[in-house]
Amino acid sequence: MKRIPSKFRSRRSGAILLDVLVIVLITSILLAGLATLVVSDSSIANTETNYANSLVVAEAGINYELRKISNDGNSADQKHSSGVAGTSYTTAAGTFQVYVTQRNSDGTEPTPWTPGKNLWVYSTGGVNNLTRTVKVAATAYTNTPTLNYAVFGVSEGLMNGSATTVNGDVGTNGFFNFTGHPTVTGNVVFNGASSNWQSPPNGSYNVVHNASAVNWPTVETIAVSTFGSQGLNFVASYNDNSLANPPINNKTVLINGNGNQTFVGKAGGANYYLTSLTCNGNAKVIFNNTNGPINIWVGPSGSSSTFVFNGGAAAVKSTPASPNAVRAYIATSNDVILNGNSELDAGIYNINNAASGRVIFNGTPNIIGTVMANKFTFNGNPTVSAVQGYFSPNGSVLYYGFVPPWQEVGGIN
Amino acid sequence: MRIRSVRRHTGSTYLEVIVASAVCVLSLSVMIQLWAFSMQLAARTTDKAVACSLARQTVETLKETGFSQTPEATSSAPLVHYFAVDTSNQDNAPNSARYKVTTTVVSDATVAGSNPVTPAPTALRQVTVTVTLAQSGTTLTTLTTYLVRAGI
Fold first, then answer.
1. What is the tens place of the pLDDT at every residue in A300-315?
2. How far is Cα B71 from Cα B63, in angstroms, rounded to an integer?
3. 10 Å Cβ neighbour count for A43?
4. Whole-angstrom Cα distance, residue A80 to residue A89?
5. Which residues contact residue A33 at a Cβ distance below 8 angstroms, ignoring those fewer than 6 apart?
6. Contact A123, A133 (CB under 8 A)
7. Which site among A42, A64, A71, A141 would you substitute to test the B interface, given the most B Cβ atoms closer than 10 Å to its Cβ?
8. Which residues in chain A are contacts of B5 at CB distance < 8 A?
9. In chain A, which residue's Cα lies nearest the Cα of B55?
10. What gap in Å lies between CA A242 and CA A349, rounded to an integer?
């Protein structure tokens, strides 16, 4: 037998095992890398799925809350002042925390939210310890009744003249007393269970009784919705008094003799702010609304001041189609008195809850517009012809719903 | 002495081959299992991702349809659609579809006597979307949300 040289034997010893181990090691490293990659990919896919599903849960929370407050505004989940801000619900859609805040036009979000107001709904939805929060705007959808009131007295209305004519409806939440025999071409409408005649009228009218009182906003409320949270204080500082002819200084108008004060309109509406207006003698106000609407705001709310005026003929007459209407919003507590026999093309709004004065018409003016007052007294024989579209009552809330914007807040947690 | 030495080395080589073979078999077995696991996990991940996408797509479609226009669909008569791996609709060929999307829409209040059933304006409508593998019936994902009047 030929001897195998020892140098060859020793070199080949264990080579196959070594080669196999090396190949196995390399293959294992490659496969381990592949497995790691696949597991990592799976983990990322799961995280992304949870991320997306958390949003669905959060949005389910928004809808859940909208339905809840639509059924009962007082059951809203208000923001907690400490701890977790929202109320937690575990539902079929998942677990979410939800709360509401008020949504003011100036960007503030006071709490608690008052039913009927605009609101933000916040909802945080979570899936497998991953949460997302969304914030959506919501508003109240209301039913605003279609009305044809020429005159409305919230608590009372007195008509003392027999030649008074109202072309349209006359309404109240309180009582009417027609000591004269006015002509009403529309309905005499009593709103609310206790609303009725104070004493039987002299004439016969088409009387309507509605079960619910009409809810009118105050002048201050209208100012807040128009100018933001500062309301009348805002228009007291920022107004168009300088547009008037002559320009109005010191927020007061006092005209005597045969003098005139012309209020001039502008595109988008000219807003005047007065603390008093007095017309003596034959002095009168004129509305030049050729260029746009005119709004006269009289304040401060609840203050006692004089508002006695004559005239009020407008360049552009008030019709439902006219965009250049003239409106006077009077928030003071003294009586509002219209004297003289001129034409008034305007809507007068004097509703301020208990602080309201009385709207008094003397003489035989021809009023083409609408008069909304807490109380009114027609001493003379005015003619009031209803023009729709001047003022709207508060509607009753039907439900709450989403309005843009939709925002995600806080990112992923 | 020399002959014994040669024999010892020869035996080592045989043993070495046997051990190497065993290591090979064992390693290959483990590697094949690892590879199979990786492939299964990758396939499952793909299925879950597609399923979640289909579920969200279904929810968004229902939201776009709207609270009042979305038909009622109880668990006994759900809305069913079939999809391929590329999420194309396969309602015309459900046997070749990869995914089955089952949707139920149940209102907690309905208009009395309505036919077809109409949700009451105050209803909370629970939408549940379940995605399964069309052939095996394995559930991949379930997504639930709510529809309300004027909601999102």
1. 988 888 888 876 666 6
2. 12
3. 11
4. 15
5. none
6. yes
7. A42
8. 6
9. A53
10. 23
Cβ neighbours around A242 below 10 Å, total: 11
A232: nearest Cα among A264, A271, A268, A265 = A271
pLDDT of residue A28: 86
Minimum distance, in Å, between the CA of residue A185 and any CA atom of chain B: 39
Residue A365 in contact with residue A84, Cβ under 8 Å?
Answer: no
Instruction: Say whether B152 and A56 touch across the interface (CB within 8 A).
Output: no
Cross-chain Cβ contact A12/B49 below 8 Å: no
Shortest Cα distance, chain B CAs vs residue A82, angstroms: 28
Decide if B122 contacts B107 (C-beta within 8 A). Answer: no
- DSSP secondary structure, A281-298, as one string: TT-EEEEE-SSS-EEEEE
Q: Is B41 in Cβ contact with A34 (below 8 Å)?
A: no
User: Nearest 5 degrees, angle CA B10-CA B11-CA B15?
Assistant: 125
ipTM given for this complex: 0.85
Residue B20's region, left for phi above 0, alpha for psi from -120 to 50, else beta, is: alpha
Tell me the CA distances in angstroms from A370 to A173, A179, A279, B45, one per residue in order: 17, 22, 21, 69
pTM: 0.62
Query: What are the residues facing B83 on neighbouring strands?
Result: B89, B99
Angle between helices B2-65 and A15-71 (to 10 degrees): 20
Largest interatomic CA distance in chain A: 151
Q: What is the DSSP letter of B110?
A: B
Q: Assign B94 to helix, strand or coil.
A: helix
8 Å CB contact between A100 and A113: yes
Question: Does residue A142 register a pLDDT over 50?
Answer: yes
Tokens 């208990």 belong to: A354
Residue in B19, B122, B147 closest to A17 by CB? B19
What's the CA gap between B132 and B113, in Å, rounded? Answer: 34
Burial class from Cβ neighbours inside 10 Å (0-12, 13-18, 19+) for residue A108 reads exposed
How confident is the model at residue A318, as a pLDDT? Answer: 59
Query: Taking CB atoms and an 8 Å limit, are B152 and A46 in contact across chains?
Result: no
- Token output for B67: 């609270």
Beta pairing class for A359-361 and A307-314: unpaired
User: Residue A183: in which H helix or E strand, if any?
Assistant: strand A183-184
Separation of alpha carbons A339 and A337, rounded Å: 6
Task: Provide the pairing of β-strand A383-386 with A396-412.
Answer: unpaired
Cβ proximity of A280 and A304 under 8 Å: no
Residue B119, strand partner residues: B110
- Phi first, then psi, for residue A57 (nearest 5°) are -65, -45
Nearest residue to A109 via CA among A14, A215, A229: A229
Amino acid in position B152: I
CA distance B101 to B131: 5
Joined tokens for residue A57? 């849960």
Q: How many C-beta neighbours within 10 Å does residue B89 have? A: 12
Please name the residue that has the structure tokens 């100036």.
A106
| Torsions phi, psi for A232 (to 5 deg) | -65, -30
- For B43, the 3-state DSSP assignment is helix
pLDDT for the residue numbered A1: 45
